[in-house]
């Protein structure tokens, strides 16, 4: 048996329970991963609060993780026992969710959804990346963003926003990146590569004269932020449904291949994981971590670490 957080009904964070559940056995192309760190995402809160997609109870929440492969199915060809991996284990494109999410000591996941962890990243840093970076990339692709264009990022200090700012500069070749944040986070967002930072507590969208080739809204405020877009320029809103009917909502393509391609950017330091300094939260403090995430004040990602099983050996006899 293993320790896991789960819920047996939809509702607020208080429906979460800590208990014992069986350790799964990997089938076919799956690997069994001993989880060393996990990250929380707004989608975890939404799926707990409302049944967005069908799921049988109990449900262990969580999408993002980093850990060590301790067993594998007979169809696994690329990963070996002892490999350090990270990824988003929930493939939302299938229209369902795994009942065993990442807030458990051991999880199973298809090998094509994970990638080898860059050696220069800690487990905490790797766990923070997958959903946020895949979401950020899909937004640029949906918008058809081109090199030398200018982007306005709404929410530059959030879990997705911190990566949108960095990707705009270092992967998609934006000529100018302007981002919004609160007063205390202005210098932090500049350090990520933003050319200009707008303090939303002092400046309204309507007061910004410059117009942009893309408005990338990571906080669901496209009903207001659209005014800084050029005529007919795309507006990306990562929340669902978007608050502006003109806004585009990008999908989430879950793939270990995407993470593999980002490897050189992570290893060179051009792309950095950003973990909220309040954490990481211990595995036994998951309810508090969700409470903090739901305040909307996190700077970067909320990470869960360490996990109870980390004192165990990662050498397993199952193959």
From TrEMBL:
Which of UniProt's keywords are assigned here? Oxidoreductase
UniProt cross-references to InterPro entries, sorted A to Z: ADH-like_N (IPR013154), AOR-like (IPR044626), ER (IPR020843), GroES-like_sf (IPR011032), NAD(P)-bd_dom_sf (IPR036291)
Is the Amino-acid biosynthesis keyword given for this protein? Answer: no
Q: Which Gene3D superfamilies match?
A: Medium-chain alcohol dehydrogenases, catalytic domain, NAD(P)-binding Rossmann-like Domain
Record keyword Coiled coil present? no
| Enoyl reductase (ER) domain mapped to chain residues | 11-304
**MF annotations from Gene Ontology:** oxidoreductase activity, acting on the CH-CH group of donors, NAD or NADP as acceptor
Q: Which SUPFAM superfamilies match?
A: GroES-like, NAD(P)-binding Rossmann-fold domains
Q: Which CDD domains match?
A: MDR_like_2
Which family does the UniProt entry place this protein in?
A: Belongs to the zinc-containing alcohol dehydrogenase family. Quinone oxidoreductase subfamily.
Could you identify this protein by its name?
Enoyl reductase (ER) domain-containing protein
């Amino acid at each position: 048996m293993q320790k896991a957080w789960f819920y047996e009904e939809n509702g607020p964070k208080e429906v979460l329970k800590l208990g014992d559940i069986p350790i799964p056995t990997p089938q076919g192309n799956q690997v069994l991963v001993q989880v060393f760190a996990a990250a929380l995402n707004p989608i975890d809160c939404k799926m707990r609060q409302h049944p967005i997609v069908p799921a049988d109870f109990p449900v262990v929440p969580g999408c993002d993780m980093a850990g060590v492969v301790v067993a594998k199915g007979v169809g696994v060809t690329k990963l070996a026992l002892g490999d350090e991996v990270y990824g988003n284990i929930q493939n939302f494109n299938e229209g369902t969710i795994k009942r065993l999410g990442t807030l458990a000591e051991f999880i199973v996941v298809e090998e094509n959804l994970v990638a080898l962890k860059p050696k220069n990243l800690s487990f905490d840093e790797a766990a923070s990346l997958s959903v946020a970076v895949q979401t950020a990339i899909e937004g640029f692709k949906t918008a058809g963003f081109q090199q030398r264009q200018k982007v306005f990022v709404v929410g530059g200090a959030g879990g997705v926003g911190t990566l949108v700012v960095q990707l705009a500069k270092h992967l998609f070749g934006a000529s100018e990146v302007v981002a919004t944040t609160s007063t205390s986070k202005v210098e932090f967002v500049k350090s990520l590569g933003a050319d200009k930072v707008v303090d939303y507590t002092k400046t309204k969208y309507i007061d910004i004269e410059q117009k942009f080739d893309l408005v990338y809204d990571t906080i669901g405020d496209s009903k207001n932020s659209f005014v800084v877009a050029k005529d007919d320029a795309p507006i990306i809103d990562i929340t669902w449904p978007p608050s502006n009917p003109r806004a585009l909502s990008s999908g989430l393509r879950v793939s270990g291949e995407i993470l593999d391609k980002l490897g050189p950017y992570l290893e060179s330091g051009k792309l950095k994981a950003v973990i909220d300094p309040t954490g990481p939260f211990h595995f036994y403090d998951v309810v508090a971590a969700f409470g903090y995430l739901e305040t909307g004040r996190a700077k970067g990602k909320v990470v869960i670490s360490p996990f109870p099983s980390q004192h165990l050996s990662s050498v397993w006899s199952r193959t």
